[in-house]
Design a protein that fits this description.
Helix content: 25-40%
CATH architecture: 2-Layer Sandwich
Structural class: alpha/beta
Number of helices: 3
CATH topology: Transcription Regulator spoIIAA
CATH superfamily: STAS domain
Shape: globular
Number of domains: 1
Distance between the termini: 25 Å
Order of helices and strands: EEHEHEH
Radius of gyration: 12 Å
Strand content: 25-35%
Largest sheet: 4 strands, mixed
């Protein structure tokens, strides 16, 4: 769990591998409190590997969360980072920020 321990402020990330791709399932808020620790872990685990980010349970994303996704994309390198299952409110932020290519 990243960030504060209260459920409303926390982010959890689970990592699995499917068909040589790292699947990260996020649950909670990807914001200034949680993004730094998530970014460090995700970049370390996914460097130079195809990665899918399942954001179906993400309730909020801030600019700090967008920076974490951008850092993850750079770490994945020529492999593909994709985002799946983003809720409409999260998808709107991703679209407005130019992250539509990941979706």
């Amino acid at each position: 769990m990243f960030g504060k321990k209260s459920k409303g402020d926390a982010l959890t990330a689970s990592y699995t591998e499917e068909n040589d791709t790292v699947l990260i399932r996020l649950d909670g808020r990807l914001d200034s409190v949680t993004s730094r620790e998530f970014q460090t872990e995700a970049v370390d685990r996914c460097r130079n590997r195809p990665t899918t980010l399942d954001m179906g349970l993400v309730t909020y994303i801030s600019s700090a969360g967008l920076r974490a996704i951008l850092a993850l994309d750079k770490a994945v390198g020529s492999n593909k980072l994709s985002i799946i299952n983003a809720k409409d409110s999260v998808k709107d932020v991703l679209d407005m920020s130019g992250f539509s290519d990941f979706i």
